[in-house]
Amino acid sequence: MRKFLSFLVGAILGGLVGAIAAILLAPVSGSDLRGQVRERAMKIQDEVKAAAAARRAELEEQLATLRAPRQAE
Length: 73
Known about the structure:
Blueprint (H helix, E strand, L loop, with lengths): L1 H24 L4 H38 L6
C-alpha cells in the first residue's frame, strides 16, 4: 500500500510540474493560438471551396460534352 501511495504522489507531482512547465514555456498565449488555429481553418476551408468549384466546373463541362448531340461523321 505504501508503494502505491508513493507512486500516486509522484505521479501527481510530476503532472503538476509538467503542466506548469508547459504553461511557462508555451510559445504563444492561448488566445493567440486559438486565433492561429481559426485562421488556418478558414484558409483550409477557402482552399477546399476553391477546389470544389474547380472540380464542379470540370464535371459540368464533361457533362455538357456528353449531352451534346454527336455530329455525323
